[in-house]
Design brief:
Elements (H helix, E strand, L loop, with lengths): L1 E5 L3 H10 L5 E5 L12 E3 L6 H10 L2 E4 L6 H7 L9 H7 L2 H10 L7 E4 L2 H11 L3 E5 L9 E4 L2 H4 L2 H4 L5 E5 L5 E9 L5 E3 L3 E6 L2 E7 L6 H15 L3 E10 L2 E8 L9 H4 L4 H10 L11 E8 L5 H5 L4 E5 L9 E9 L2 H15 L2
Parallel strand pairs: 1-2, 1-4, 2-3
Antiparallel strand pairs: 5-8, 6-7, 6-8, 9-10, 9-11, 9-13, 11-12, 12-15, 13-14, 15-17, 16-17
Length: 360
């Protein structure tokens, strides 16, 4: 089977690494000449809206998926005329627009922070009066890793904030005094089969995920699965979906979903019976889903900007290096380390070992 992937970044690369043992082949459509997934499959170098090359991808592939949600939903809708595409265009349309996303949560009775649609500075001023400060203003689309957003703490932060974010449609969210950030990696097959990985505790710095630690018997696991199940069914979703939550007052409030394999699920490569990448491929290919059970205690640390010396990372016990083959650049995710240990105390020690390598 040949899998077409829209996007040729590290997530596409890791999909191919997971799919090759299954006998799958890959083609990546990506405009970048140095797309890091190209070493693992055919590289169709073209824009995501280039219909001639999209037809080429559709003609070559048995099924198509995408590795990030900045792909236009129209691209997926176009491809769907010629080849099965998962997740579907509606899932992408909802997930890539924060207003549509939060509105869906509201319709499904999934708690969220207060939010408002912002189309102008006047809208923003009125929303701040209703929701209050502090609050977070985000572009409705294309924001990721802390980009396209601004924290509003004081009245002077509100002045000209709409222009600062490009005078594009935005959403204002009330600040949530959360006690933790967690994410749930879910997967749904073409036959409706659903599986969930353990909730993951996440730590962000400057809007970028730095550390994910897989939980053991988290008390909110069942609630998170309930919320994710509602979304999967609503969207008739196929593939892996990541659901990010705020922990607050012993419950959960929805932050956002990502319609793809996700950074906070990288620990599953070594830390679960079947990784999120293999399960995504199983789901879109119509294969039975693999076990999502943990294997030991696991965590993932991102390498931002540069990867430490290989010999130093690999010298750490229980540590597995994943180098993306990307040019080093400030603020860019260029690799990660996954840790799998027999117990939580050893895991914490290994996390400390890796963090010492990346601290300035």
């Amino acid at each position: 089977m040949k899998i077409g992937v829209i996007g040729g970044g590290q997530l596409g690369r890791m999909l191919a690494l997971a799919g090759t043992p299954l006998g799958q082949q890959f083609a990546f459509l990506d405009p970048a000449p140095d797309a890091c997934a190209q070493a693992l499959g055919e590289h169709i170098r073209a824009d995501y809206s280039d219909r001639d090359h999209l037809r080429q991808l559709a003609d070559e592939a048995d099924v198509v998926t995408f590795e990030f949600e900045s792909v236009p939903a129209e691209t997926v809708a176009f491809l769907s005329q010629f080849v099965p595409v998962f997740p579907n265009a509606e899932s992408l349309r909802i997930a890539r627009d924060r207003w549509f996303e939060k509105s869906m949560f509201q319709d499904l009775d999934i708690p969220t922070p207060e939010f408002a649609d912002i189309q102008s500075q006047d809208n923003l001023d009125a929303a701040v009066k209703r929701i209050g400060l502090p609050a977070v203003m985000k572009t409705r689309t294309l924001g990721y890793d802390g980009k396209g957003q601004k924290v509003l703490r004081h009245p002077e932060d509100v002045q000209d904030a709409f222009a600062e974010l490009g005078s594009v449609p935005c959403i204002l969210e009330g600040f949530v005094p959360f006690t933790g950030e967690v994410s749930l990696i879910a997967v749904r097959g073409r036959n409706g089969e659903i599986a969930f990985y353990p909730l993951v505790h996440n730590t962000h710095e400057q809007g970028i995920l730095r550390l994910s630690v897989a939980s053991t018997e988290h008390p909110l696991q069942g609630l998170a699965e309930d919320y994710a199940h509602r979304v999967l069914q609503q969207l008739d979703y196929v593939g892996v979906l990541a659901f990010e939550f705020f922990e607050i007052d012993g419950g959960l409030k929805a932050n956002e979903i990502a319609p793809r394999v996700h950074n906070s699920g990288h620990w599953t490569i070594e830390g679960a019976e079947c990784s999120q990448f293999e399960n995504h491929l199983r789901a879109i290919a119509g294969l039975p889903l693999g076990s999502t059970a943990k294997v030991g205690e696991s965590a993932m640390l991102n390498f931002i900007g540069e990867v430490p010396a290989v010999e130093k990372v690999t010298a750490i016990s229980n540590c597995h290096l994943h180098h993306y083959g990307k040019a080093f650049k400030s603020g860019r995710k260029v690799g990660h380390a996954t840790l799998r240990c027999a117990d939580s105390m050893t895991l914490k020690a290994r996390i400390d070992d890796v963090q010492r390598l990346i601290q300035p």
